[in-house]
Amino acid sequence: ILCDIGFIGLGVMGKNLVLNLADNGYNIAAFDLSDEKVQAVIAQDEHENTTSTPRVYGCSSYTELLSQLKAPHLIVLSVPAGAPVDQVCENLIGAGIQPDDIIIDTGNSLWVDTVAREEKYKSNFLLFSSAVSGGEVGARFGPSLMPSGSPYAWARVKPIWEAISAKVDVVTGKPIERNKPGQIIEDGEPCAAYIGPAGAGHYVKMVHNGIEYADMQIICEAYHVLRSGLGLSCDEIADIFETWNNGLLDSYLMEISVEVLRHKTSDTETPLVDLILDKAGQKGTGLWTAMSSLEVGCPAPTIAQAVYARSISSFKELRKQASVDLSGPSNVPVSESESLAIIEQLHDAIYCAKICAYAQGFQLMKLAAKEHGWALDFASIAKIWRAGCIIRAIFLQSITDAFERNEKLDNLLLDKFFAKQLSERQDNWRKSICFATMKGIPTGALSSALAYYDSMRSAVLPANLLQGQRDFFGAHTFERVDKPAGKKFHVEWSTLDREMKLIDD
Ligand code: 6PG
């Protein structure tokens, strides 16, 4: 029998997506350059398969893969972003792929590459893309999927994607648990929704990752304050995070932080985090988000700050030297009751900074969508992030509600629910940052979010002086608050009388 789907790239994500597809009743022809990986997925499938027929067929070449598929062929790629995607596309052309065949790129491709590839290969095959979030467990038991590209391809992919994606309970908005091989979830809202034309899905996934960077950094800063500012142990911090994870801050990233903090190596009682080198890695999607925010002209300082925090962490040797050469503040003792208040304040600081990070990400998507002509549905994007993905959190339901109240919302800060939350919690947020600052603990993400909030709520900013400076040294002109908009003025700064002139365009 011919298979329903071809699959190329059997790394951790690929292998688990194959098993997820198989659980949902699809037969897979699987190929990887490493035969070992092909054998591994077959072995895993044999181990998990409860039916009498094999679900995964291993292939040893691109040609064999195509020959094992129903036509028109549907092929899923799970290969690293960049050159490997083109390499596989070229190999499939060599193997005889047809113009009505569909290739789905599930990697973290840069969105402009996806746009260019769709155009480049349009006479050879239909390139569809669908970013996947959720890591290896998500891939196995239900990821969040961000498909985009040809609507014709989507019509074919939709039932498959809706079947394998994470599901959300229609009433509670919470993820429906699925964690066993063979288990499938037939009800609930799928975390897979069509995003838009080529590139849109990868753009949205890129912003998801930018938010992921900010979310992670915010939690890490809170850990830093609790550890270095209050001198709490990893277990004590895990207890606090666990409590927070039962309320407004309920999220996957908070949940895994608890697990990481509690973990001790088997041969010592030392918490693992104390043994992990404090140098953060990054594959680039956070950086792309920050770069895009600068290009689009949409402030995303908390996301950018999270990228900077990873960069600064990588200067380990320099920091070690500077820790000897540069002094910090004198020690401020903290009483037990102050300590309890600080913990409470920190909870609100995390929540407020999180709102700002998401506000930045959603506004960035909105402005990028305008620039590229995409009709993004933000309530739908928030919905598919409620389960399966790395930033899944109870909080995403509040964002869904905000965009359902007003689909044209310019910025989440302006939604009445979030505005109220920020207004009620801002004092605690400010106090947390004051405490960290007095202790010399860097809180770039928490503080940049507060500066963002304060800038956004300021009707007047010091850009008036800035415009004066620009006009002084570069005759760049300025507008006046007391004159009609658009009228440009310049002062002859180098003359004695400093005459002001109206400049005609
Ligand atoms: C996801 C993750 C995933 C990947 C990140 C890691 O949504 O499943 O974001 O895509 O783990 O790319 O990124 P860094 O290596 O840059 O932290």
TrEMBL record:
Keywords: Gluconate utilization, NADP, Oxidoreductase, Pentose shunt. InterPro entries: 6-PGluconate_DH-like_C_sf, 6PGD_dom2, 6PGDH_C, 6PGDH_Gnd/GntZ, 6PGDH_NADP-bd, 6PGdom_BS, NAD(P)-bd_dom_sf, Pgluconate_DH. It comes from the Bacteria. Residues 201-494 form the 6-phosphogluconate dehydrogenase C-terminal domain. It comes from Litorilituus lipolyticus. GO terms for biological process: D-gluconate metabolic process; pentose-phosphate shunt. Its EC number is 1.1.1.44. It catalyses: 6-phospho-D-gluconate + NADP(+) = D-ribulose 5-phosphate + CO2 + NADPH. It is an enzyme of class 1 (oxidoreductase). Substrate binds at N108, S133, G134, G135, H208, N209, Y213, K283, R310, R470, H476. This is 6-phosphogluconate dehydrogenase, decarboxylating. The keyword Translocase does not apply. GO terms for molecular function: NADP binding; phosphogluconate dehydrogenase (decarboxylating) activity. Pathway: Carbohydrate degradation; pentose phosphate pathway; D-ribulose 5-phosphate from D-glucose 6-phosphate (oxidative stage): step 3/3. The gene is gndA.
